[in-house]
Design goal:
Structural class of chain A: alpha+beta
CATH class of the largest domain in chain B: Alpha Beta
Number of domains of chain B: 3
Largest interface: A-B, 41 and 39 residues
CATH topology of the largest domain in chain A: Alpha-Beta Plaits
Structural class of chain B: alpha/beta
Largest sheet of chain A: 9 strands, mixed
Helix content of chain A: 25-40%
Largest sheet of chain B: 6 strands, mixed
Distance between the termini of chain B: 59 Å
Radius of gyration of chain B: 25 Å
Oligomer: heterodimer
Distance between the termini of chain A: 55 Å
Number of domains of chain A: 2
Number of helices of chain A: 6
Number of helices of chain B: 22
Number of strands of chain A: 11
CATH superfamily of the largest domain in chain B: Cobalamin-binding domain
CATH class of the largest domain in chain A: Alpha Beta
CATH topology of the largest domain in chain B: Rossmann fold
Number of strands of chain B: 19
């Protein structure tokens, strides 16, 4: 039998909170592990009563999901935390936001509603905005049209176990171009597949099918993350919790 | 003067390098001040990668002390990895600080902390990236004053050509004195240029300006004499000592990085100095006397530090933490205070002593029980008498067995190899010890699930120690002894499986030895190695022994000396050593006598508990031992778990 530490087991999780937070400015260079460390320390500084796992190395109950890659900014990162004492979600949001470094801003915090399913299952698409300095929108537009017209667009991705080919075209839900002369902006909606198709991969696909090579490293921002609706739009993943929460408090149900 | 931020030009480069977060700053508790609000601008550098440099206590202390002054600001800079360095050169971006990405070139002072000599090539790389001339004599009054500190600065001769000043001893007060001198000189319109500034700095206690001292050599290659080239600088430069550590409770707001670092915990220095008298230990020799922080001082630093950082582990640092006069009470009261908070308390490696197991049990009550580390340092009782770290084999086995019996599954033992007078037999006893420890431990714990890790490093003789005259063991000797040790441990498979062995080959130690006991002539070797692409010498993937050997052969030949001359050669009693004009307070005659005692295996006691044995430090420096017990206890603060929280709500 596995050894167990002496003493009573840690208190159970009594409440789950789901948070949306950002990765802005220079902190876009933080990796998902950097963010995890920052978040765990901020939770301690803010004295949020976390629930812990049992065992010799107790860990706070935190579920990370769908982290944006190192170098990409984000307005929509999600995490779920388990508490050992019930707290007001807004009070947790304010306390945690104040104790995190500027650039990691906690925008929303809602209580996970029973019976609405896991949060990770609701994160099946991302809307990215990619800024391409020194690229003309017309040039980008032509390249995007070529990519959308392609049946497949394979790019090689580096993964833990060597390189793996992934079809960027299959994961691409929509793409549009905006901007002005010398500064093109690409908007793409990408479906969550394995391995994940990231902005780098979309750019690699544009290079492959249309020979587009931005002279300056492009800057990507994850604008939204959530469930893809029938029209290919990304919807708010916290909406089911919010809806269930307002019903629970006796407020009128939406018609 | 407006100083531009390099960030806009740096940012596109960061998208192309590994672990870019280490270059953006913005750590919790980092401080920024407007450039024009202060007279003196310090860039503080730890000459290694960010992950190693950020947790450095010395740098963090000086960072806060300087930033608390209204007339000064301090920002930090670390060694940049080759991938970014190449891009910075390509795009003309200079070495920068993290707080505001200001060019290091524009600061008044560049303070570099050398915990180890293996950072020297990284200093040259940073100077070059910053656009500061490598040689002190080529700099003008617009360049920063390059100041070296840290333990390696007790023999700065190998980097004498590259630094403007070296600071000996504790930095807390001397950085203020240097700031005063620089501020007054700038305010007066920089009279006499850089030379006058350096002359003024040379008169600050603890500050050594190498360019004002000339060296002559004898026909046999040894040093003839050090001579002052100006009358207004001291003939001998003495170290600085901070008394009453409670008055210097730094760092108050330890820096918390986003990036991963080598120490994912905060540290509180519980005392400085050590009088155990381990003969190999430079730190223990040059930081005398012992000065304890009081139990209440420590308690309040732990409290403010945890609140300011959110760390869940606190290291109680010092050279021999279990020797604090109130350690038992401290351990108990801190463990009581943090009960139920998942806060771990830890000691660095300790002496082999059953009491230390009790301490560790107490400290780990609330946190993770990772493993216990003891440092017997020498394999045999005989060699432990030579190094003055006496513990009998029976005591060692009994202590480690006690640890296993108390539920610790993992014990680490630190040893050195290549000690003076050492033979293969001394090192082979490590294998006997380890197997005996496992056999007894399995019996005591009733479990086969225990491990002992033997960590062994090659000994490097250091300046200002009784072993400063010793012959360093050659890389071949070290490698041979490590090989026979490994064979001996692996001979019994049933026990050997429970014993891990960690070691480094002997080559890096030889280069560390060259840099530790080198003189000014070694500077040419360092420069040559850097020009040939050498840097990050503390990292095995970057260190090139062959490059160092080739550079040493070429650059030292004109002087009639070589690598062996600096490393494996035993020095005579009357040889002038490159650091003789730098005063650690230790009496050279006492050091020599202690060296002779080492050879004849005679021990010396700890002067905390036994009468003074006249090492010379206290009378020379006007200092004294400061220890408790104070009789005070930790005020029972509000238990942390019951502190203010985000409002709970009833549902």
């Amino acid at each position: 039998m596995a050894r167990q530490p002496d003493g009573p087991p840690p208190p159970p999780t009594v409440q789950k909170l789901r948070l949306r937070y950002t990765k802005r400015g220079p902190l876009r260079f933080a990796s998902h592990r950097d963010l995890a460390r920052a978040l765990e320390r901020a939770l301690r500084r803010a004295q949020v009563p976390m629930a812990f796992s049992a065992g010799f190395s107790p860990h706070p109950k935190i579920s990370y999901m769908g982290a944006a890659p190192t170098g990409a900014a984000s307005e929509a990162e999600y995490v779920e935390i388990g508490l050992a004492v019930r707290c007001d979600p807004e009070a947790v949001r304010v306390a945690l936001d104040a104790s995190l470094p500027p650039g990691i801003d906690v925008l929303e915090c809602v209580e996970a509603a029973e019976g609405t399913g896991g949060l990770a299952e609701r994160l099946d698409g991302t809307r990215w905005r990619v800024d391409l300095a020194d690229v003309d929108p017309a040039e980008l537009s032509a390249a995007v049209d070529q990519l959308l017209a392609a049946k497949v667009a394979m790019v090689a991705k580096r993964t833990k176990n060597g390189t793996k080919d992934v079809d960027v075209r299959a994961a691409l839900v929509s793409a549009s171009v905006a901007g002005e002369a010398g500064r093109a902006i690409l908007h793409v909606v990408v479906r969550q597949v394995t391995p994940t198709v990231r902005p780098d991969d979309v750019l690699a696909a544009l290079a492959a099918v249309a020979d587009l090579h931005p002279p300056v490293p492009p800057r990507a921002v994850r604008e939204a993350q959530g469930r893809l609706d029938g029209t290919g739009e990304v919807t708010d993943p916290l909406e089911p919790d919010r809806e269930a929460g307002s019903r629970c408090q006796g407020e009128p149900q939406p018609v | 003067m407006t100083v531009e931020s390099l960030y806009p030009r740096l940012e596109p480069l960061l998208a192309q390098v590994q672990k870019p977060i280490q270059y953006v700053g913005g750590e919790l508790n980092a401080q920024t001040k407007p450039w024009d609000d202060v007279a003196v601008h310090w860039a503080l550098m730890y000459p290694d990668a960010y992950e190693v440099g950020l947790p450095n206590q010395g740098l963090m202390i000086l960072y806060e002390v300087l930033n608390e002054r209204p007339d000064a600001l301090a920002e930090r800079t670390y060694a940049v990895w080759p991938d970014l360095a190449a891009l910075m050169r390509e795009h003309g971006v200079g070495q920068f600080t993290l707080e505001n990405h200001r060019p290091v070139r524009d600061f008044d002072v560049l303070g570099v902390s050398f915990a180890t000599e293996l950072g020297y090539t990284n200093l040259l790389e940073a100077l070059d990236l910053a656009g500061v001339p490598l040689h002190a004599v080529d700099r003008d009054e617009t360049h920063p004053v390059v100041v070296a500190g840290g333990h390696a600065a007790f023999n700065p001769e190998p980097v004498a050509d590259f630094v403007d000043c070296a600071v000996l001893g504790d930095g807390e007060q001397v950085v203020g004195d240097i700031t005063d001198v620089v501020a007054a000189w700038k305010d007066a319109g920089r009279p006499g240029g850089r030379t006058e500034l350096l002359a003024r700095l040379a008169r600050v206690e603890g500050v050594y300006v190498p360019q004002f001292y000339a060296v002559s050599y004898l026909p046999d290659g040894t040093i003839g004499a050090f001579t002052r080239t100006r009358d207004d600088v001291p003939a001998q430069v003495a170290k600085r000592t901070v008394m009453d550590l409670d008055e210097w409770p730094y760092p108050k707001q330890p820096l918390v990085p986003l990036a991963e670092s080598v120490h994912e915990r905060m540290s509180v220095e519980i005392f400085r100095g050590c009088t155990r008298g381990c003969r190999f230990c430079q730190a223990g020799m040059i930081t005398r006397p012992v000065r304890e922080r009081t139990i209440t001082g420590i308690g309040s630093m732990v409290d403010t530090g945890l609140k300011a950082t959110g760390y869940q582990e606190v290291g109680l640092l010092s050279l021999s933490s279990a020797d604090h006069s109130e350690i038992g009470q401290l351990a108990k009261e801190l463990a009581d205070r943090y009960e139920g908070t998942n806060t771990g308390l830890s000691l660095p490696s300790t002496r082999v002593d059953a009491f230390n197991v009790t301490l560790a049990n107490e400290l780990s009550r609330n946190g993770r029980r990772s493993g216990l580390t003891f440092a017997p340092e020498g394999g045999s009782e005989r060699i432990r008498r030579v190094i003055n770290k006496t513990v009998s084999k029976d005591d060692l086995v009994r202590t480690v067995t006690t640890a296993y019996a108390n539920g610790w599954r993992q014990v680490k033992l630190y040893f050195m190899c290549g000690l003076p007078t050492e033979t293969d037999e001394d090192v082979l006893e490590i294998a006997e010890l380890a197997t005996e420890v496992i056999r007894a431990g399995r019996e005591a714990s009733g479990s086969k699930d225990i491990r002992c890790t033997v960590s062994i490093g090659g000994f490097v003789p250091k300046p200002h120690t009784p072993f400063q005259w010793a012959s360093q063991a050659s890389a071949e000797t070290i490698d041979h002894r490590l090989r026979v040790l490994r064979e001996a441990i692996n001979a019994d498979r049933r026990l050997g499986r429970s014993i891990g062995i960690r070691y480094h080959d002997g080559k890096p130690g030889i280069i560390e030895g060259l840099l530790s006991r080198g003189d000014r002539r070694v500077g040419r070797v360092i420069e040559r190695v850097w020009r040939d692409g050498g840097h990050f010498d503390g990292w095995s993937e970057h260190f090139s022994y062959d490059r160092w050997v080739a550079a040493a052969a070429d650059e030292l030949a004109p002087f009639g000396v070589d690598l062996d001359w600096y490393t494996t050669r035993e020095r005579g009693q009357h040889e002038v050593l490159p650091w003789d004009h730098l005063e650690s307070g230790l009496d050279k005659e006492w050091l020599w006598d202690d060296w002779q005692d080492a050879i004849s295996e005679e021990e010396v006691a700890d002067c905390r508990w036994t009468p003074c044995y006249d090492c010379g430090v206290c009378p020379t420096m006007g200092t004294e031992i400061q220890i408790g017990p104070t009789g005070r206890s930790l005020i029972p603060l509000t238990p942390v778990g019951a502190g203010p929280r985000p409002a709970a709500h009833a549902h």
